[in-house]
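User: Is it possible to get a 3D structure for a protein together with its bound compound? The compound here is adenosine-5'-triphosphate. I've pasted both below.
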Amino acid sequence: MLLVNDVDLYYGASQALRKVNLSAETGKVTCILGRNGVGKSSLARAITGRHPVRGGSITLNGLDISSMAPADRARAGIAYVPQGREIFSQLTVQENLYTGYAPLKRSQRHISPEIFDLFPVLKSMLKRRGGDLSGGQQQQLAIARALITKPRLLVLDEPTEGIQPSIIKDIHNVITILRQQGEMAIVLVEQYFDFARELADYYAVMDRGEVILSGRGDEMVEEDVRRHMTV
Ligand SMILES: Nc1ncnc2c1ncn2[C@@H]1O[C@H](COP(=O)(O)OP(=O)(O)OP(=O)(O)O)[C@@H](O)[C@H]1O
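Assistant: Yes, that's possible. Here is the predicted structure of the complex:
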């Protein structure tokens, strides 16, 4: 269980998160929605430790991770699929996957066959360079790399951005399988409303650094949410 309590985050003097509260349960998908620039990625960065918070606290399964370095958060069970994927274009698919080993002990460093069950396309591309993959394949690689640590919290920042529909469907299926397995909490930052609605057990809509609407996914009122997603 992830708990974000009254979190404030600044870039210099500019405040990007204002007293943000969020929870994410194991075995559930929590979607963060909102238009460009409202603080969704900042919240993902606060959770994963990519940017320090100035106020509030963040706990994962009771452990206060608020001031932990990203590597320590990864060891505590947090995996992150950043916006834009951040694949190493000069490394092969296999080498990109190996970069996911960093938080693991030597004895844990192997790629479980389940990764290739989830992403069969990657198995046939292990020797290809990351930069030669399509955007959708790179996104699948980024998710696979994150799953290598068998995380307890998976944070995905706009995994559908710029991706073709067939691969969006594949990513949807993977998230559904991960949810069913019930071993991790999933936080999904998303601007694609239909994708979010289909997957959300819980949702939070952000506007100007604040969570302004939240609730259960099956009680999401499309009009109310869409009002905060269109410019
Ligand atoms: N590194 C940074 N330095 C300064 N300001 C930043 C930085 N990153 C984001 N911001 C600002 O913080 C605010 C929130 O940005 P953030 O990226 O969290 O929004 P977002 O909802 O994820 O938007 P998008 O969908 O475009 O990624 C914006 O006003 C943005 O310009």
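The chain has a mean pLDDT of 94. The chain has one domain: 2-227.
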